[in-house]
């Protein structure tokens, strides 16, 4: 097996009596390994190079979901992983099939989502000869995966798959790709499946530190602070440390703002929840960052959509950065205290050291005053925006109310993503899924399918724009074939909405290529045998949501929005959080 591994990182397994099992072909060894890793659902599309696996798939308790495009397989595996906390699996053939996974791999890589992609390739004797559908998928995937390797020996299949899963979910999670030449899958092996101590992964495991001594320093900084603030990101939910974060906030009486992927870490109705921060975040949340004297970033990357112009970011604050990935500390913003640790380890260590705090009355009153001002703005919760025309914020808020804020909501990218994050009203973690770092249009529908298959007891809504929906709408057929219950809300403004907004505000209303002609979505769903409805006025919204919720299997609502509705506030390019554009409607 060739891999992204430095020679110094490779260690031999402890010597022991050799173990063997009955001979079986590599494809069966691969399926056995997947079952041993707890895989029950996988998403894929067959092709010649990977047919040896499909030939034996029915022999194993592995449910295969036949997507209509390999990108859909990758996004579905991603959604499955985010919803369940497990490792999603995507399967594709060589050449174009493998390459079609790449956007989904990059999406998972940017958002630290554990995923394993398995691809077939041409037989070993044909590698490097430009055989039909031959592609160096490992070379292509290396920049957008945590690890990628081609398995050249059938005897290495059990170990390669076991290591792939451990790499995907350890440390900072991420996607892994394993490429199998076809003859490797067809040859026989008696190699056993490895025991945990036989994995060759020093340095890759999540740093479980137990106690984190730096928590003592942080506790002292909190005690000396008058206006502390926690910025929580995706890393807290990855570590399953949301409960610890809320306990720390309550013990020290620290308000909490969150990133896009930190949505749901704290119940948005909690008195200490200060809301979504960043480029399209709440004004009061951004003001809190700019005015706090201590900013504690936990499991976030301090990326540009949060910080804006970094030289003006949190100018009055000492900045603490807690992350499991050492390379993130100090990468984007100045850091006064960097702590390399699992978020759960740090928060537990901090909780042990924090005395109970009195309410920070003045600080909380200031936050409440800023929030009150923001809630008077015309763009906030407009409901019947522009005299009875349907508005996106109203639609999202009504879905939240109808589902008692318990549903898994999978948003796409663009204006719909911002409206979903701000108006659904999240109460729980692991209920908001979206492509944060890469911003992948087309993510919502297949990812919602993966989430629904991973958490079938939960209601799942895909909230998407008409642009993103048309990028992966072929997966409607997959939803029908496997009767996956996903309710699809298309926020349809017949535009590339975020592009149109930027062209209006930044590019002097030069609306080039923002208009988007699409199909009649109700008739499209009719062709697929999917129930669908259309809403054009606010007074129609509750009724169509109720009909969708009462429908088993997939269904769709085409919400016809005003074409000119913008999402405000907005941070313009080159500006900082203190220069948010509020806009008027």
Radius of gyration over C-alpha positions, nearest whole angstrom: 25 Å
Helix content range: 25-40%
Number of DSSP strand runs: 21
Structural class: alpha/beta
CATH C-level category of the largest domain: Alpha Beta
Number of separate domains: 3
Strand content: 15-25%
Say what oligomer this is: single chain
The CATH superfamily of the largest domain appears as: Thiamin diphosphate (ThDP)-binding fold, Pyr/PP domains
How do the strands of the widest beta sheet line up side by side? 1-7-8-6-5-3-4
Mean pLDDT: 92
Regions with pLDDT < 50 over 5+ consecutive residues? Answer: 1-17
CATH topology of the largest domain: Rossmann fold
Report the biggest beta sheet as strand number plus sense, adding barrel if it closes: 7 strands, mixed
Total helical segments: 24
CATH architecture of the largest domain: 3-Layer(aba) Sandwich
Determine the N-to-C terminus distance.
59 Å
SSE layout and pairing:
Elements: E1 2-3, E2 24-25, H1 26-36, E3 41-44, H2 51-56, E4 63-66, H3 70-84, E5 88-92, H4 96-99, H5 102-110, E6 115-121, H6 137-141, E7 147-150, H7 157-169, E8 175-181, H8 182-186, E9 188-189, H9 214-224, E10 228-232, H10 234-238, H11 242-252, E11 256-258, E12 273-276, H12 283-291, E13 294-298, H13 304-307, E14 318-323, E15 337-340, H14 343-353, H15 361-374, H16 385-388, H17 392-402, E16 408-411, H18 415-423, E17 432-433, H19 444-454, E18 460-465, H20 466-472, H21 476-481, E19 487-492, H22 497-505, H23 521-528, E20 532-535, H24 541-549, E21 555-560
Parallel strand pairs: 3-4, 3-5, 5-6, 6-8, 7-8, 10-11, 10-13, 11-12, 13-14, 14-15, 16-17, 16-18, 18-19, 19-21, 20-21
Antiparallel strand pairs: 1-7, 2-9
Helix pairs in contact: 1-7, 3-5, 3-19, 9-14, 11-14, 12-15, 17-18, 17-24
């Amino acid at each position: 097996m060739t891999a992204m591994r430095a020679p110094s990182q490779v260690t031999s397994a402890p010597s022991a009596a050799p173990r063997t099992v009955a001979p079986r072909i590599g494809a069966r060894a691969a399926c056995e390994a997947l079952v041993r890793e707890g895989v029950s659902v996988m998403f894929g599309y067959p092709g010649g190079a990977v047919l040896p696996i499909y030939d034996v798939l029915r022999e194993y308790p592995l449910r295969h979901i036949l997507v209509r495009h390999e990108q859909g397989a990758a996004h579905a595996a991603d959604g499955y992983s985010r919803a369940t906390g497990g490792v999603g699996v995507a399967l594709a053939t060589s050449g174009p099939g493998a390459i079609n996974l790449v956007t989904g791999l990059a999406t998972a890589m940017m958002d630290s989502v554990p995923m394993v992609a398995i691809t077939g390739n041409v037989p070993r004797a044909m590698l490097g000869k430009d055989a039909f559908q031959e592609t160096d998928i490992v070379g292509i995937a290396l920049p957008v995966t945590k690890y990628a390797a081609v398995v050249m020996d059938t005897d290495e299949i059990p170990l390669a798959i076991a290591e792939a899963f451990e790499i995907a979910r350890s440390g900072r999670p991420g996607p892994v790709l394993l490429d199998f030449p076809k003859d490797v899958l067809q040859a026989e092996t008696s190699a056993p499946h490895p025991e945990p101590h036989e994995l060759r992964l020093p340095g890759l495991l999540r740093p479980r530190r137990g106690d984190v001594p730096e928590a003592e320093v942080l506790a002292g900084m909190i005690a000396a602070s008058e206006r502390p603030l926690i910025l929580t990101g995706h890393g807290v939910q990855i570590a399953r440390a949301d409960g610890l974060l809320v306990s720390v906030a309550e013990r020290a009486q620290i308000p909490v703002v969150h990133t896009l992927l930190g949505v749901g870490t704290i119940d948005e109705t909690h008195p200490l929840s200060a809301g979504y921060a960043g480029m399209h975040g709440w004004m009061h949340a951004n003001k809190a960052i700019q005015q706090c004297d201590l900013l504690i970033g936990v499991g976030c990357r301090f990326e540009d959509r949060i910080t804006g112009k970094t030289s003006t970011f949190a100018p009055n604050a000492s900045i603490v950065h807690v992350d499991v990935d050492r390379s993130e500390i100090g990468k984007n913003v100045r850091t006064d205290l960097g702590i390399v640790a699992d978020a759960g380890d740090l928060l537990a260590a901090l909780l042990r050291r924090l005395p109970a705090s009195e309410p920070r009355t003045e600080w909380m009153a200031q936050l409440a005053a800023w929030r009150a001002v923001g809630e008077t703005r015309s763009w906030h919760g407009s409901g019947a925006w522009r005299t009875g025309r349907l508005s996106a914020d109203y639609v999202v808020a009504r879905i939240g109310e109808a589902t008692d804020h318990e549903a898994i909501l999978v948003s796409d990218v663009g204006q719909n993503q911002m409206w979903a994050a701000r108006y659904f009203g999240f109460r729980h973690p692991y209920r908001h899924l979206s492509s944060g770092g890469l911003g992948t249009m087309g993510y919502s529908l297949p990812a919602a399918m993966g989430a629904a298959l991973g958490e079938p007891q939960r209601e799942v809504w895909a909230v998407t724009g008409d642009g993103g929906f048309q990028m992966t709408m072929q997966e409607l057929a997959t939803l029908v074939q496997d009767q996956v219950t996903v309710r699809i809300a298309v926020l349809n403004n017949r535009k590339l909405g975020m592009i149109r907004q930027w062209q209006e505000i930044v590019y002097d209303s030069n609306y080039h290529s923002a208009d988007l002609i699409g199909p009649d979505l109700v008739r499209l769903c009719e062709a697929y045998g999917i129930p669908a409805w259309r809403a054009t006025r606010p007074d129609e919204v509750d009724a169509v949501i109720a009909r969708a919720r009462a429908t088993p299997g997939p269904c769709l609502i085409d919400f016809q929005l005003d074409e000119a509705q913008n999402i405000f506030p907005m941070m313009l390019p080159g500006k900082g959080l203190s220069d948010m554009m509020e806009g008027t409607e």
